[in-house]
Amino acid sequence: MSTSPTPALSQREQYLDPAMLMKLGGLLIRARSVVEGAIAGMHRSPHRGSSVEFAEYKEYTPGDEIKHIDWKAFGKFDKYYVKQFEDETNLGCYLLLDGSGSMDFGSEGVTKLEYARTLAASFAYFLLRQGDAVGALVFDDAPGVFLPPSSKNRHLDDVLQVLDSIPGTGRTDIARALSSMAERVRRRGIMMVFSDMLDDADRVMNIAKVMRKRKQEVVVFHVMDPAELDLPYEGLTIFEGLEGEGELLVDPDDVRDQYAKEMRAHIDHIQRQCLDGDIEYFRTLTTTPLEQVLLDFISGRL
Q1: Count: domains in the chain
Q2: Is residue 76 part of a domain?
Q3: Alpha carbon of 42 to those of 21, 78, 258: distances in Å?
Q4: Is 27 among the domain residues?
Q5: Element (H, E) at 39
């Protein structure tokens, strides 16, 4: 489990600011930029560990399939090596994107939905380029479009189309989306949930733990806007519920301390539930470079 950036990423300024990244163009361009930045981060910060037996590898040459590159060896030795004797086993990865109304909030020029969508697209781009099978499900209060996993190159366009299909309206029901996946998926794989987790945490985590017991890996990317942590508003403010809760006129100074306390308790509860259920948890703000999040995930698996 990881809740903080990888120390190797101190050269943060070399990554694109998320607000700048969103101006690059379509989802494919943004995803490619994130993946290339993360791979560059691996190049700058090689990981050290036990030695690699090169009898099982050969140096990459043009024409070798990219999916056979050993990224662990690349991270350690700054060279591309191709696995020769390992059985080919495609990883089935499912991207679950929360497209509810609360995800359409953004105080820093980037909404949580734009951030989560680009992060999910970046994982799709990265996994497909190494030969893994990727599927996708978008949801709000009910499961939406579902795309079965595939490892074909042209499948990326289909994944990006699904991720781009949800507008960011309505309520959320993460547990219902996970239950839908539990009914669909029989083979072992990875469920990646991209959400602001503004839902009943116990209900969500109970379903996630059941999936984990069925040998599915579950990874939660908890996407938050910086303003959600400390309520940095002054004077009488009208707060509008983005999932149909109506409006509330309040002076933030009167509620800031209690709000921060309850938000911290909510976050801590989700983290504890993930730890207890052997579920990977990554909390990220919409101001965090997406390359950093991707590399933080990759680094934890090297």
Answers
A1: 1
A2: no
A3: 20, 8, 41
A4: no
A5: helix 27-44
